[in-house]
Design a protein that fits this description.
This protein has about 300 residues and is of the alpha/beta class. The chain has a single domain, classed as LmbE-like (Rossmann fold, 3-Layer(aba) Sandwich), CATH 3.40.50.10320. The protein is about 35% helix and about 15% strand. The protein has nine helices and eight strands. It has an eight-stranded mixed beta sheet, sandwiched between helices. The longest helix has 16 residues. The two termini are about 30 Å apart.
């Protein structure tokens, strides 16, 4: 594991995102990150891998020892635009999309024991002590095995972090039990993907093979139905979101860059599903920290 302090922030409010790859923060809840960072919230990103799988333009690798080195630098670039307080790499190998040979790599996140991954995230929760934790949804957004594994491990860590009987060896590192108050999953309005699934064929593009590595199936994503419980207005942060996305040059070429640019203009909100505490009141939340005790807004 490696942790990088980007900004020294003494804040009563802390937000931890547990995501799988460099770029998940910029192509996902970037607006939310900027929104809270500008409010003085200490926002930390836990990154499961360094994005070693996939293809990349060889010209982009000039000056870098590996694709992992390039994508790490891209994430550091994005982090500065987003205002992240810290980056924390679990340092598993990128597992690639479902059904690819990378799935079988023994060093991959997919092959790592769930208890091991959950233990690392638990330690970071106990160290950072966030009130709010955000991770991928149960299907990983677009069925990426690493996204699903990070969802599973983060859910396990969220439940374990406050339990003194789980990972007691962490006390020797000064990490005492701590229970975050809220857990969210990132999600998207499915209507947006249904719209893209209709538009892309008209533009000569396959909606089942979108992205730089042709690994995003927009039609399959449009068929999912996720509860939308919480939204954060992100229109004021369009430029910051774009600047962060542009840092990930290895991932934004071809169709992927076109789709990401279109979505950035269409999306006015980041949407989330609140998993803990259970969402029962039916009114859409507009603040991840709503109802959090012990902090000033």
């Amino acid at each position: 594991m490696e942790s990088i302090v980007l900004r020294e922030i003494e804040s009563p409010r802390r937000l931890l995102l547990a995501l799988a790859h460099p770029d998940d923060e910029s192509f996902g809840p970037a607006g939310t990150i900027i929104h809270y960072a500008r409010q003085g919230v200490a926002v930390h990103d836990v990154c499961g891998t360094r994005g070693e799988a996939g293809k990349v333009d060889p010209e982009l690798l000039v000056g870098y020892g590996s694709l992992a080195d390039l994508r790490t630098e891209e994430l550091l670039c994005a982090a500065r635009h987003l205002g992240l307080a810290g980056l924390h790499f679990l340092d598993y190998h990128d597992s690639g999309m479902e059904g690819t040979p990378e799935n079988q790599n023994p060093a991959s996140l997919l092959q790592a024991p769930l208890e091991e991954v959950a233990g690392k995230i638990t330690g970071l929760i106990r160290q950072i002590r966030p009130q709010v934790v955000v991770t991928h949804d149960p299907v990983g957004g677009y069925f990426h095995p690493d996204h699903i594994k990070m969802h599973q491990a983060t859910l396990e860590a969220f439940q374990a972090a406050g339990d003194p009987g789980r990972f007691p060896e962490q006390r020797a590192q000064g990490l005492v039990p701590y229970q975050p108050q809220k857990l969210y999953y990132t999600t998207f309005p499915r209507g947006l993907f249904k719209l893209l699934a209709r538009i892309l064929p008209l533009l000569g593009q396959d909606p089942e093979a979108v992205g730089e590595n042709h690994d995003m199936n927009v039609k399959r994503m449009a068929e999912l139905d996720q509860a939308l419980t919480t939204r954060i207005g992100i229109r004021p942060y369009y430029r910051g979101r774009q600047d962060a996305a542009h840092c990930h040059a290895s991932q934004t070429g071809g169709h992927g860059g076109w789709v990401i640019g279109l979505m950035a203009r269409l999306i006015r909100f980041d949407w989330f599903t609140r998993a803990v505490p259970p969402f029962t009141d039916g009114r859409v939340e507009r603040d991840l920290f709503a109802g959090i005790s012990g902090v000033d807004h």
